[in-house]
Amino acid sequence: MTGDAVNESLLRELVPAVIGILVRRGADFASAEDAVQEALIRALDTWPGDPPRDPKAWLVAAAWRRFLDAARAEASRRGRELTVEAEPPAGPAPATDDTLRLYFLCAHPTLPQSSAVALTLRAVGGLTTRQIATAHLVPEATMAQRISRAKRRIAGLPLDQPGDLGTVLRVLYLVFNEGYGGDVDLAAEAIRLTRQLVALTDEPEVAGLLALMLLHHARRASRTGPGGRLVPLAEQDRSRWDTGLIAEGVTILQGALARDRLGEYQAQAAIAALHADARSACETDWVQIVEWYDELLLLTGSPVVRLNRAVAVGEADGPQAGLAALAGVDPGLPRYAAVTAYLHERAGDLQRAAELYAEAARAATSVPERDHLTREAARVRQLPHR
Amino acid sequence: MKYLLLKHYRGGPAHFVDYGSMDQWTPEEVDAHIQYMRDFAARLEETGEYVGEQALAPEGTFVRYDGEGRPPVTDGPFAETKDLIAGWMIIDVESWDRAVELAGELSAAPGPRGEPIHEWLEVRPFLTEPPTVTE
Asked: How many of the other CB atoms lie within 10 Å of CB of A101?
């Protein structure tokens, strides 16, 4: 390693592999993960002044030492012999899918989602507890507790069983949607972890999720305006979209779709790709987007998909058709009022639209969304009534 | 000393000026108001007086214990609650006077035609930790 700056991303990439090595040497997952976290914090502290020649060997040695110290302390507390050899046995050749098993374990279906997110970020992503806590706006002690409770819950689960890929993907998508927080860019982190998962698996849905993330990420710069204002898709400055990410997302998506095993992430990515493909909002291929929403609805039956589909129908076949497509959608859904407001505005019922935008603002679940909808209500009230 | 600056949707003294709900303003007036709030928080961060802020959704529900083995009882939401908190900002300042000065500034956020809205804000001192030296 050269220079003063610790190559933090390299360090973090090593974390799951080092946990895997400790587990193969006989450590249980919970203790191994704790030991690697401590070694990681030590590395962040000392590497800038004293960079190791072999970062991975350093991390393995430091973590193993910490594991032994903790195991000895625990053994003497219980008055028992330490069963793990102080000298590590020459383990079997590193199993390449150690990391994949960690994904499954950390996102185990028995874990609450917030715990799965935290554990995945720490054990697979190599983030420190403090970084995870800052990103989620909770005290560090709270996050540490959440993580150790999660580890207790999965204690005793074998690392070598096939896991539930669907849960892993849900957890990664959740991380992606958490966006920024503190000094960690969670969206970028989710992309990194999903990229790694694509390399470890052979599932078109994993590729579909990666494509979906890349296509959304490509638009990130254009999604907020001056003062952090939310800019809706139709008004975004498309010249600010990252064409490199879009091209990569589309290529990955095409590869996945060619496998002919459609899933919800591929379908969502296809919709995102159609938006990315339009040079202006009015060139959007809404007819094809509606078709993809139909597929998505068949796959998920989700009321949120039904709601979003109504917007697409409104664009493809006119606002009345969009309003008709809302029939049977639960009005209690978040964004229901916002969608109805938009369709009424397009249908020319400005009075109703303004009232609905104001209602939507009251029901908004985030400050930027609330401000945006308040502004929409204000904008519609300014329009000359036809 | 820490103080809570409480913003109410409803409650407190009668409006000094009735500026109407924000969705009745022009979009530019809405933007200017939001920008003023952001600038205010940024300025307090620079002076080292900003602790945090939080906005709350208007709808809430009252909940109470209803005895062993029974689910909690809920009541509300109440459309006509007299006092409804919209959110807060926490500041850490030298004195009560400074807290009042800052609340006054925040209340001068612009509304329709760029006029200050003169919104009532409630200032509440935090109860502190007991002092280390007590005798």
From this structure: 22
Test A371 with B27 for CB contact under 8 angstroms: no
Of B23, B38, B59, the CB nearest to A374: B23
pLDDT, averaged across chain A: 90
**Set of chain B residues whose Cβ sits within 8 Å of the Cβ of A377:** 23
Domain residues of chain B, as ranges? 2-125
Q: Give pLDDT tens digits for A164-202.
A: 899 999 999 999 988 765 678 899 999 999 999 999 998
The arithmetic mean of pLDDT across residues A11-33, rounded, is 92
Burial (CB < 10 A; 0-12, 13-18, 19+), residue A377, is: buried
Name B59's Cβ contacts closer than 8 Å, sequence gap at least 6.
A362, B77
Residues A321 and A357 in one domain: no
The pLDDT assigned to B131 comes to 75
Q: Tell me if B31 and A227 make a contact (CB, 8 A cut-off).
A: yes
Q: Using CA atoms, how far apart are residues B10 and A134, in angstroms rounded to an integer?
A: 33
Q: Is the complex ipTM more than 0.90? A: no
Write phi, then psi, for B64 (nearest 5 degrees).
-145, 155
Instruction: Indicate whether A360 and A315 sit together in one domain.
Output: no
pTM of the complete model? 0.88
